[in-house]
Amino acid sequence: MLKFIFRRFLEAIPTLLILITISFFMMRLAPGSPFTGERTLSPEVMANIEAKYHLNDPMWKQYMDYLIQLVRGDFGPSFKYKDYTVNYLVGHAFPVSAKLGLAAFILAIVLGVTAGVIAALKQNSKWDFLVMGVAMTGVVIPSFVVAPLLVLVFAIVLKWLPGGGWNGGAIQYMILPMVALSLAYIASIARITRGSMIEVLHANFIRTARAKGLPMRRIILRHALKPAMLPVLSYLGPAFVGIITGSMVIETIYGLPGIGQLFVNGALNRDYSLVLSL
Fold it and tell me: Rounded to whole angstroms, how far apart are CA atoms 248 and 260?
């Protein structure tokens, strides 16, 4: 087992190196500079700044220096946030994204599985049509549309929840971003669970359990739920990746100090070190 893990790790190194190389040269060859966005600088000032950050070195030397920094675990200084290193910025932003992403992931599993099981048990009833209708709506409408709508309804019109900010991760500030981030995955998990549960409920071992007179609740929890979850489990990996990457839009809309907003700000300001670290 350890040999297999070690071999896969070694196989991943060339792929990672290729991605780092492509990302590095794409960022450095892009037009513009991290220091020309706010105001025009004189050639002398620009030359001094580039010398300070070694941006006037040959491209191959900048690339080799960057690789050496990566091996040391040093992502370098931030060009936008001049008083901070990239390690410091990422270290403070990551817990925000991790907390939001994990909460949205758990919410998607709990609500998605529950809704899917209810729809399967009430097949072709009003509950089934309601759950599937909401699920289809959640799949079709993207998060960047859902997020402003939630702010409009619950923050501006009803004034139940704050429309943005983090406030140390207080629950009332997490509800809207968490729902906006997880809604599409709640819908997908509900659809997968419903289809899988309907198939399992028609299996022979479920008919046998019913013939023995077992309560439906026991049949669902002890016999039907586990095999019905297999398709859901295969979907959770891509869902988790989607939630993490989708947090960029949500964090920007709600003004959350996480990795997503950090990446967007770094890309807009051509902060090479910050973008490459993310």
Answer: 4
